[in-house]
Amino acid sequence: MYEAFYGLKEKPFNLTPDPRFIYFTEKHCEALANLVYGIRERKGFLVLSGEVGTGKTTLVNALLDTLERTGVLSAFIFNPILSSTEFLEYLLADLNLKCDARSKSQSLIKLNSLLLERYRLGQITVLIVDEAQNLSAEILEEIRLLTNLETATEKLLQIVLVGQPELSLKLNSPELRQLKQRISLRCTLDPLTLSETKEYVRTRLEIAGLPAQQIFSESSIGEIYGWSGGIPRLINTICDNALLTGYACDSKTIGIEIIREVSEDLELSEAYRHSMRKGQSSRQITLPRNGGDIGDRDDEPPPFAGLRNSPTDSESFDLFVQFVDKLRDRSK
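User: That's the sequence. What structure does it adopt?
Assistant: Structure tokens below.
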């Protein structure tokens, strides 16, 4: 509705995790690098946590896209509210294994055979579970037992749990101490800073067809940050509503009054904003740099376009590591 009015080719602040609009801060790059490192090195059990709306789904989609392009077989469970039988059935189906899930022993034999065969070929298999804070204790125990599928030296199945901060609280409970001890890497996504919020808005407008962002003033960006707490999903919601309101008011620029109006209409409370802005710091493992330049900002291809199917996972992962390093450099 407002695209032509502002000279945009498309809406820049949709809530769907469109990979074309991907924006990685240094924290996102570090989290993605950690996940790639953990999967590549067959660490076994990885955890990614973050507050609602901080970009976990976008990060997972980027990871899944990378795994597909590099020949890594992955299973993605996005609704973990399942029984143990349903969970195993979903896992096998996503790995293209045909088996009677009612026979747990046969299912595990088939799964183990697949994992061993891929391991012999030097290939990696990954299970990613989103919304993992909703996993029952029963399913978490099933997942723990899946980590027993291993050789004498390495894990056959790499498992990534993705969830809200409640996931970390659940994993820290005494009854799950066996599972907690198997976690080799943890990483956290924090809300954006003020400067990252400014760059996030600019980037999305540029991708949508507006290279020189003059719609939102510096004070407006500060107001957006204040009301959103640096949460990307809330930034999108506020900006989209602000553009619609500006269009209705025939205003080519968005002032702080419009930001306040739409934020109040969205009932973004002061307490919620401050709770989102507390921030959480986490020490994360940084991948070693592999050197090489993969193009300048103006002419480099879209994210992950340079990756290709490769005879080995290692080659393709090396390309991806270079890409993550490039993103990290850009975000500094």
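The chain has two domains: 21-190+280-331, 192-276.
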